[in-house]
């Protein structure tokens, strides 16, 4: 069964239509990358899955349940953004545990889950430090920790690495893949970077102008691009 099912989804901003009937099925545990040029609708689609943006037509199901009218909090998702705003006056531990504190979870549960997330993300030594004392990569890991403690069914990433330098981006790619394996969760990951898509995805969704051009494994798309756009974008010889 699909964990996330996007059916005939349309998005309009006033009279401007930016999404033209998008269909994507994402399986349980799959790492799916939405890729395409700037403005093609990747963030809009992700925000519609998250419930941060209403859909104009079609349906979105998460875990077999239609969530069209379900607010973000009820969707069993967590989103990691490109600009990972941390609270500067809270420690790393308090930053990671913040969603649980807001949900008024017991202190023991918060401590346990923060401890586990910190262990997974190699942040245990830094729990009492403040964000300013961390490197860019460590801050990005704190932002991921904040998503992990919520134990969502689906993680949504919107260009999480685009503010990092090239070297760190490569390291973080590997870390996010490891995270996926360890947590065994479903990930929907947005990027405009073809290499990121090719190296990280189980399945790639290539988008253009609010439409899906092709869906397949990195190898499928490389070997059998359905059109010149996909071939050119993915970088296979034509
Ligand atoms: P991507 O993330 O692939 O760069 P977006 O999803 O941000 O693309 O945008 C898709 C299209 O929707 C673009 O043409 C963009 O200008 C338009 N768009 C996004 N948000 C809004 C908005 N709030 N109002 C009007 N148009 C928007
Ligand atoms: Mg975007």
Automatic annotation (TrEMBL):
Supply the alphabetized keyword list. ATP-binding, Nucleotide-binding, Transport
Gene Ontology terms: cellular component: ATP-binding cassette (ABC) transporter complex, substrate-binding subunit-containing
UniProt KW Nucleotide-binding keyword = yes
Residue span(s) of domain ABC transporter: 4-234
This entry's Gene Ontology molecular function terms read:
ABC-type transporter activity; ATP binding; ATP hydrolysis activity
Q: Does the keyword Zinc apply?
A: no
- Supply one GO BP term: carbohydrate transport
What's this protein's family per the entry? Answer: Belongs to the ABC transporter superfamily.
Q: What is this protein called?
A: Carbohydrate ABC transporter ATP-binding protein (CUT1 family)
Q: Which organism is it from?
A: Palleronia aestuarii
In the complete protein, the residues contained here run 1 to 238 of 353
């Amino acid at each position: 069964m699909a964990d996330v099912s996007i059916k005939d989804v349309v998005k309009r901003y006033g009279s401007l239509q930016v999404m033209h009937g998008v269909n994507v099925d994402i399986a349980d545990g799959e790492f799916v990358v939405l890729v395409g040029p700037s403005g093609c609708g990747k963030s809009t689609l992700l925000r519609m899955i998250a419930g941060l943006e209403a859909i104009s037509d079609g349906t979105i199901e998460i875990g077999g349940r239609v969530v069209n009218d379900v607010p973000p909090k009820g969707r069993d998702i967590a989103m990691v953004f490109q600009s990972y705003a941390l609270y500067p006056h809270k420690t790393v531990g308090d930053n990671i545990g913040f969603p649980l504190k807001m949900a008024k979870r017991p202190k023991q549960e918060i401590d346990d889950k923060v401890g586990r997330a910190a262990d997974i993300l190699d942040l245990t030594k830094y729990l009492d430090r403040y964000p300013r004392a961390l490197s860019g990569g460590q801050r990005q890991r704190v932002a991921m920790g904040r998503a992990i403690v919520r134990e969502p069914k689906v993680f949504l990433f919107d260009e999480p690495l685009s503010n990092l330098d090239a070297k760190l981006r490569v390291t973080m790619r590997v870390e996010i893949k490891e995270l996926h394996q360890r947590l065994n969760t479903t990930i929907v990951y947005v990027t405009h970077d073809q290499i990121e898509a090719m190296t990280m995805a189980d399945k790639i969704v290539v988008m253009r102008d609010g439409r899906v051009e092709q869906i397949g494994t990195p190898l499928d798309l490389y070997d059998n691009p359905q059109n010149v756009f996909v071939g050119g974008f993915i970088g296979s010889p034509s």
